[in-house]
Specification:
signal; Peptidase inhibitor family I36; about 200 residues
Length: about 200
């Protein structure tokens, strides 16, 4: 009787290991859960020639992604005050429900001397694999020229859920009636949405 109990105790770990190994192929075949948005983010900004001639520069905070229009640096010195009080930020691409991809941005210019101002937010996508680096334009939202404090460009595009794609935003920034430059988001969430 005691010998039978010892055999059961010896066989139990072997059976448990066999069950775990048998479950692994089924788990591998299960669909991947939707990936979380990346935790690290970076943005880049480029200043247009027209803005540089006007003594303006487009700068972006690498941690928050908020852009601002400031006085162009001279001789490598960066001023600690803005010449313009315009700043803006993104709303990164995200799914709204199961068939709408939402994205956009907003820019605030506190002083009338910076008006008219405008932003154009372009949604770009590529395949979800790591080697996919060529993005194509999917659609854009334009705030139009504003002679008011805030220029908003928010909206969504319909999508089907047949394919996972990597998305990013490219925003053209305008103030004082001229093109200031472009801000590119390198936050690239992978969403179950294809256009």
């Amino acid at each position: 009787m005691q010998r039978l109990s010892l055999v059961r105790l010896a066989v139990a770990p072997i059976m448990a290991a066999a069950l775990l190994l048998a479950a692994s192929p089924a788990q591998a075949a299960a669909p991947d859960p939707a990936p979380a948005e990346p935790t690290s983010t970076a943005w880049t900004a480029t200043t247009s020639d027209a803005a540089a001639k006007a003594g303006l520069a487009l700068a972006v905070d690498k941690d928050t992604g908020q852009w601002r229009i400031q006085q162009a640096a001279e001789s490598g010195m960066t001023p600690n005050y803005p010449v313009s009080y315009c700043y803006g930020n993104f709303t990164n691409p995200r799914m709204l429900g199961s068939s709408t991809l939402e994205f956009g941005g907003a820019q605030t210019c506190d002083y009338a001397r910076d008006w008219p101002h405008r932003i154009v937010v372009e949604l770009q996508s590529t395949c979800s694999d790591i080697w996919c680096v060529i993005f194509q334009d999917e659609g854009s939202i334009d705030s139009q020229w504003r002679t008011a404090r805030v220029a908003n460009a928010f909206g969504g595009l319909g999508c089907d859920n047949s394919d996972r794609r990597k998305y990013r935003l490219s925003t053209d920034v305008y103030a004082r009636g001229i093109y200031i430059g472009n801000v590119l988001s390198t936050t690239e969430p992978i969403l179950r949405c294809s256009m």
